[in-house]
Amino acid sequence: DGGIGMLQALGFGFWNRDGKQAAFGAKGLEGLVRITDDTVLPELAECRFRIACDVSNVLCGPQGCSAVYGPQKGADAAMVEQMDGWMESYALLAKQKYAAADPRKEGTGAAGGLGFAFLTFLNGVLEPGIGIVLDETGMEQHIRNADMVITGEGRLDGQTAMGKAPAGVARLAKKYEKPVIALAGSLAKEASNCNREGIDAFFSILPGAVSLDEAMNPQNAKANLADTAEQVFRLWNTSLHYSREQ
Fold first, then answer.
1. Distance (Å, rounded) from C-alpha 143 to C-alpha 48?
2. What pLDDT digit, counting tens, does each position of 36-78 carry?
3. Which long-range contacts (CB under 8 A, 24 or more apart) does 235-244 make?
4. Which class is 4-127 in CATH?
5. What angle do CA 69, 70, 71 make, to 5 degrees?
6. Please, what's the b/e burial string for 142-163 (b: 16 or more CB within 10 A of its CB; e: otherwise)?
7. pTM for the full model?
8. Strand 201-204 with 180-187, pairing
């Protein structure tokens, strides 16, 4: 919804042609004609927003939130085109009142447009989420002392390579020339993009065709992860053995 639901809760007004507050969800972006901030919570002026943002998508267009994330939520091509048009009109309306509005800025398309809302209306700062996590956990020191780095997520795809956690871990590992393996529940065709981001090899933990319920069962997932990790390290040990013999 471009973040307007969050902003309405904070006191911003988003008004449609009928003089009513916009409805919740993407549909609320249709027909926006006015934005007001006279009832915004005064405490916001004293707040600083540091936003963990793991994607670089812009607000509109082929790499915008509607085009990239809409289909994941069930939107068809016609719906994506319609929502993208609403989002573009919303951005133009915001620009009339707020100089910071820039729908082309990386990260504005994060979380359905929440990135745009934080940057435009709340003077927020978008930072790579993985950077915040790596700093807080002292991950760099652990990676520096490691022989191999294992990372992963539920589904490895093109979005993973656009700044999500596994890619961030891999980039840090390559700073110390460490090999990186990723394990995932499933693999999309675009997962190969992750190789360019420092992930040397990736593997699905699923042993074959299974139902979603079977794949998501915690006991099954734990066993599948352990089995796949064992085979990865068997391969690793075999490689080390033969390299020493040569």
1. 31
2. 999 999 999 899 998 988 788 899 999 988 998 888 888 899 9
3. 236/148
4. alpha beta
5. 95
6. ebeeeeebbbbbeebbebbbbb
7. 0.64
8. parallel
Cα angle for residues 98, 104, 110 (degrees, 5° grid): 90
**Pairing mode, if any, of strands 13-16 and 32-36?**
antiparallel
Asked whether 160 and 198 are in contact (CB, 8 A), the reply is: no
Q: Which two tokens stand for residue 182?
A: 């990723």
Token pair 């068809």: residue: 76
Contacts of 161 (CB under 8 A, 6+ apart): 167, 190, 193, 194, 196, 197
Structure tokens at 192: 């190969």
Selection from 218, 187, 222 nearest residue 201 by Cα: 187
Question: Kind of pairing, strands 125-127 and 13-16?
Answer: unpaired
Q: First vs last Cα of the chain: how many Å apart?
A: 60
Domain ranges of the chain: 4-127, 136-245
Which tens digit of pLDDT belongs to each residue from 148-204?
Answer: 999 999 999 887 887 788 998 999 999 999 999 999 999 998 999 999 999 999 999
pLDDT by residue (tens digit) across 108-143? 999 899 999 999 999 899 988 888 888 889 999 999
CATH architecture for segment(s) 136-245: 3-Layer(aba) Sandwich (3.40)
Q: Residue 145: what pLDDT?
A: 93
* DSSP codes joined into one string, 46-90: G---EEE-----BSSSTTBHHHHHTGGGT--HHHHHHHHHHHHHH
Nearest to 180 by CA among 210, 206, 143: 143
pLDDT at residue 245 greater than cutoff 80: no
